[in-house]
Amino acid sequence: MTHKTPPASAPNRRDFLAQTAAVSTIIISGTALINQGEAWGLEAKNLKPETMRTLIKLARDIYPHDRLADRFYAEGVKSFDAKAGTDPKTKTLIETGVAALDKSASAKHRVPYAAVGWEAERVALLKAIETTPFFQAVRGTLVVSLYNQKELWPLFGYEGESAIHGGYINRGFNDLKWL
């Protein structure tokens, strides 16, 4: 029995799986984003699902933590969707900001921002817009909406607020051995 070798231009199994895994990580279905790999979903009510997908990638690039799952970033950007439903200016700011970022990425990399493969290339795109109202609004909101998720606190070693327990004096403030 002879074994045929595929032509050089045909993708091998490993390449095929890598490409399909990258594509199926976040599937846009109707108004929902569904992440099969992490088993979470997020429904976009006021912003386009593509906008929410880009915001999740943008959040990860602004505040990168390899240990954090995308679901935490998705939870962090949900506030943009909610605010876009009550404030037309916010909706316009986010939708046009993401559209401009995608246009910039497409001009340089021929794909929208969320599909740019290398983090360093996405960060370069972000550095070009870091003084814009869009970037500042996203960065400023995310610092609260991302890090204020109680489920994340143990991952960063934060034990939570201290005021309800009498402050830090009796909760480990004075247990520094090196001081």
List the helices and strands and how they pair.
Elements: H1 13-24, E1 27-29, E2 32-35, E3 40-43, H2 49-62, H3 70-86, H4 88-109, H5 119-129, H6 133-145, H7 153-156, H8 169-173
Antiparallel strand pairs: 1-2, 2-3
Helix pairs in contact: 2-3, 3-4, 3-6, 4-6
Labels describing this entry:
6% strand; 179 residues; mainly alpha
Describe the protein's architecture and organization:
This protein is mainly alpha-helical and 179 residues long. It has one domain. The protein has eight helices and three strands. The chain has helices spanning 13-24, 49-62, 70-86, 88-109, 119-129, 133-145, 153-156, 169-173, and strands at residues 27-29, 32-35, 40-43. A three-stranded antiparallel β-sheet has the order 1-2-3, covered by helices on one side. Helix 3 crosses helix 4 (88-109) and helix 3 packs across helix 6 (133-145). The longest helix has 22 residues, at 88-109. Residues 20-24 have low confidence and may be disordered.
Mean pLDDT: 81
Structural class: mainly alpha
Total domain modules: 1
Number of separate strands: 3
Order of helices and strands: HEEEHHHHHHH
**Through-space gap between termini:** 74 Å
Largest sheet: 3 strands, antiparallel
- In the predicted model, the low-confidence regions spanning at least 5 consecutive residues are 20-24
**What would you report as the Rg, rounded to the nearest angstrom?**
21 Å
Give the spatial strand order of the biggest sheet. Answer: 1-2-3
- The backbone outline, from C-alpha atoms, is globular
Beta-strand residue percentage: 5-15%
